[in-house]
What does this fold into?
Amino acid sequence: MASLYRKIMFNNHTINRFKELETPFYYYDLGILNKTLSACKESSSKYGYHVHYAMKANFNQRVLNAIQSFGFGADCVSGNEVKAALEHGFEKENIVFAGVGKSDKEINLALDADIFCFNAESVQELMVINDLAKAKNKIANIAIRINPNVDAHTHHFITTGLDENKFGINTWQLDAVVEALHHCANLQFLGIHFHIGSQIIDMEVYKNLCTRINEIQEWFTEKGFEVKILNVGGGLGVDYYNPDTNQISNFENYFKVFKQFLNVRADQEVHFELGRALVAQCSSLVARVLYVKNGIKKNFLVLDAGMTELIRPMLYQAYHQIENISRKSEYDEQISVGIDTIQYDIVGPICESTDCFRKDVEMPTSFRGDLIAIRTTGAYGEVMASSYNLRDRVGSVYSN
Ligand SMILES: *Cc1c(COP(=O)(O)O)cnc(C)c1O
It folds into this structure.
């Protein structure tokens, strides 16, 4: 029997509109985006927290404009992201630049733009930023990205804060950092930065992070450094299994954990870098069924979208809810009893065996031309699209 699901993102009007459109495309519900941004703003403002949006999650223009209009800062991981943030009206005082491999060209671009802070990820990088700043006769603000060795309890492909990960500076290297900072006259130490992974739903993880940050900031203070900024990164997860009934992440609880467990002096600022939690639920990838292949062992729905449009399932074994929105009238609200359903492997057209969104998905009997929605694709979806197989660039459609 089919499970019940409520059509919150797609009403009849929206589905009729889709029928006229070329697929595949990312559908953006800007109402959901605004509701999410507003919830985050409200909860973070309560404690005076600063939120930088992690731009790599989604740099669609309309999405960026909405986020900028709420007054969030930007967390960038490339020179082009810094440029895009400035072009979309983010204040330079609200732009931070992280990344394990910043090139000289990118560092120079950020120095010229006078961004707020570099989150430096190695001792060698500190030296390079210092040299490049010196050549421009500038002082670069620095936060040290530290790998706190806290397990994010998320998928091992998206954990970043363990000793074995490439990100950040390990705590046993902090003496060398302090030594470097003493010698780098063109660096201004502002604080410490952490980002331990993504899709974190267990608040205990953040509590553990707070404990580690408290120890580490104590260490810096003892060494005579004033820690002005505590940047705790992002990673808050979303509910991929219940995109309609659990549309907005629990920002209240999330920020409250830091309020409770992070030691913050009155003159310190706490910074966050949220990506996924702000944008994931506002978008679905909409595709059409090209072919239905019924086999002996397997039934396949071959879509006109594949790993070139959404690679998360193939790259991270990520789960996405998949719905046949053309069968809505037979498969809606309470009337799910007595509908024929079949298990399908939902696959794309790309010439790779891994080009499969999900296996054994229970769906109403589906036909060529049906519209399929892959839910919760606002984060790390459109931004990872590629032109492999010389595919067209995936389009975007907006609710208004
Ligand atoms: C990707 C990234 C983030 C955002 O991660 P989400 O899981 O999308 O919240 C924050 N900070 C840094 C440094 C990142 O690389």
In short: Residues 54, 56-57, 75, 77, 98, 195, 198, 233-236, 273-277, 379 surround pyridoxal-5'-phosphate (CB under 6 Å). The longest helix spans residues 203-222.
